[in-house]
Amino acid sequence: MTIPTPVRECVSKAESICVLTGAGISAESGVPTFRGKEGLWKKFRAEELANFDSFLRNPELVWEWYSYRKKIINEVQPNPGHIALAEMQRLIRDFTLVTQNVDNLHSRAGSRDVLELHGNITRSYCIRCRKAAFEESLSKAEKIPVCEFCGGLVRPDVVWFGEYLPAAAFEEAMESARRCDLFLCVGTSGVVYPAASIPLTAKEHGAFVLEINPEYTDLSSRVSDTLIGKAGEILPELVRIMKKEHNHESA
Ligand code: BV8
Ligand code: ZN
After folding, report:
1. Which of 192, 231, 245, 251 has the largest count of CB atoms under 10 Å?
2. What is the CATH T-level fold of the domain 32-75+122-158, as seen in this structure?
3. Is 118 assigned a catalytic role?
């Protein structure tokens, strides 16, 4: 895909970059997104799954959903989109990666200090004593995992609807959005708050906000530009532009 000139300019000059990713960046790895045609919410009733009350009422169903997703995630690999962002972090001095994803694929691609706003599906904890619960004790559980220390219910370490995001991660993401000169909004439908307010904060503070998505979203009318395409194709192209600029500088 050819990157329009104004975008090339912003990308090559960027010194402080903040990136927000959503489920779309993992789509090319084979992880289904939430919304859209074959979205995860389709197979399962969203309201029954991603909130604490439903979990208390029906922990089996919620664990069935998370076990299904963990199985998928264990079978896939990071894709060129994830890898490009790990490369970008090595190129750009002031670089922050914020993700709504819980699939751990950014860390597996080599990204460091990833700000995980909605938690991480590879971690679980006891709702009573809050101690971490580990994989082996979970897999032994026939139906739903219980805490080996106090017998309490174990839940996935993810942020459900109506739950607060990790305050430190959210605050650090907002700080990076306020100071960056380039903000990349990759693979998110922009419907879930407060995560979706981060690109809007960057825009208010003068950043060039570039959306990367095969289709237009709720955010498209409020960003600087939208590149219609796949993250796995566009992000490596942006890294090539940055590399040229940086090799040129260091040459
Ligand atoms: C909270 C669980 C405070 C983890 C999820 C205003 C302010 C604050 C809160 C609210 C508000 N308005 C409404 C709320 C409430 C609610 C909310 O936002 N509701 C929405 C639906 C209206 N927010 C909350 O409850 C948040 N908590 O605010 O706390 C509080 C506390 C108490 C009382 C009140 C408030 C908690 C939000 C977190 C919810 N947890 N999931 C899990 O199981 O994963 S949300 C779920 O959606 C996932 O976490 C996911 O990360 C998130 C966002 O989805 P996307 O990542 O965008 O994925 P989606 O499928 O939607 O889109 C994929 C995109 O990729 C598409 O656009 C597609 O075109 C694109 N794509 C496809 N292929 C590619 C691609 N892009 C690039 N390349 C490709 N190849
Ligand atoms: Zn416990």
Report:
1. 231
2. SIR2/SIRT2 'Small Domain' (3.30.1600)
3. yes
**Does position 173 have pLDDT exceeding 80, yes or no?**
yes
DSSP notation for 211-240: EEESS--TTGGGSSEEEES-HHHHHHHHHH
Q: pLDDT band for position 247 (50/70/90)?
A: confident
Q: Which CATH architecture has domain 1-31+78-118+165-251?
A: 3-Layer(aba) Sandwich (3.40)
Number of the ligand closest to the Cα of 129: 2
Q: By the 8 A CB rule, do 129 and 149 touch?
A: yes
Indicate where the chain has its CATH 3.40.50.1220 domain(s): 1-31+78-118+165-251
Tell me the pLDDT tens digit for each residue of 3-15: 999 999 999 999 9
Ligand 2 midpoint to CA 191 (Å): 34
Q: Which one of the listed residues 118, 205, 246, 248 is annotated catalytic?
A: 118
Quote the CA–CA distance of 103 and 44 in Å, as a whole number: 18
